[in-house]
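Dear U.,

Please find below the material for section 3 of the report. The protein was modelled together with adenosine-5'-triphosphate; I have listed the sequence and SMILES used, followed by the predicted complex structure.
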Amino acid sequence: MSRSTVPVSLAELERRAADERSEDGRGPDALIVCDRLVRIFTAGGVEVQALQGLDLVVRTGELTALVGASGSGKSTLLNVLAGLDVPSAGTASVAGFDLTAMDAAARLRYRREVVGFVWQQAARNLLPFLTAAQNVALPMRLGGGRIRRRQWAARVRDLLDLLGVGHCHDRVPHRMSGGEQQRTAVAVALANAPVLLLADEPTGELDSRAAEEVLTALRTVNEELGTTVLIVTHDAAVASAVRRTVAIRDGRTSSEVLRRATRDGKGAETVTTQEYVTVDRAGRLQLPAEFAEKLAIRDRARLTLRPDHIAVHRDDAGEVLRESAPEDLRGAQADGGRDSRR
Ligand SMILES: Nc1ncnc2c1ncn2[C@@H]1O[C@H](COP(=O)(O)OP(=O)(O)OP(=O)(O)O)[C@@H](O)[C@H]1O
């Protein structure tokens, strides 16, 4: 069997990859761009690195779930993206707003106009003494004229209808179910037509039926209004119902799952699921632990470039040098190892 080798060095490939991942390489549709984001908390003289160089790009119009173990940094990231917290290092921007360099006025404008937020606790999202309609109208009143006054009432009604809670228009929160409260909270978050909706465990306190309704509401917002939606969740049903699920581990993005729907000639839909590791701007990727363990890959790996993929091999240089005759070694190099063995 003949295998093709491409006559370029690994250093040259690294240089070309770095060029391609330059600033422009993000593309104009990149809404959220986080580069090597770091957030360090100091509590009682002890430092906690909640984010440890996190990279993330989310494109306009995506519906993405963010998953990860407790303490992995999901809420910290969401707070930074919401403009509620400031990173210690690295860069983060949303819709061109630099989240590391906004003054107080710009931060307020960003929180009112660019981003909407839904918390897990319904009580945190709604004022208890206002009706659903009054809760949704409140951000418009505070929004500095972004939505014209004469449009407020119609917009309130349209949002509540879109989210399936039009019947709650005149009800105060304690006369609504938990699911109705959360869907009203989504309407509140959308009042000033933000480009990005962030939701931190929006189904965390709901039974499975109410959770499904909230998820449907978030999908409707994404599909019908075109709002980019990022949901932090522990709920496997939520994570598997969106097209992109990004996993965070130890304050960094580690892997992601993409789901693609295709239709055959008769209109039947098939969803294919593919798991990816994240490649950061410097070209670093993390091998999944189970893959590395299976092949006993520890300190280093050998790469070979194929026409349509890169193969990662266990470091067998020591064994080859011990066991191979010079002719065998030359054979091994001709077999694809030349570029990466130094
Ligand atoms: N204000 C804070 N002060 C000190 N440490 C904090 C603070 N906020 C978060 N941390 C720490 O940062 C780390 C990440 O916390 P974060 O809340 O972002 O994780 P998470 O993935 O959202 O967890 P969970 O799923 O349990 O909500 C944790 O170790 C947490 O204890």
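For the text of the report, you could mention the following: The mean pLDDT is 84.

Regards,
Y.
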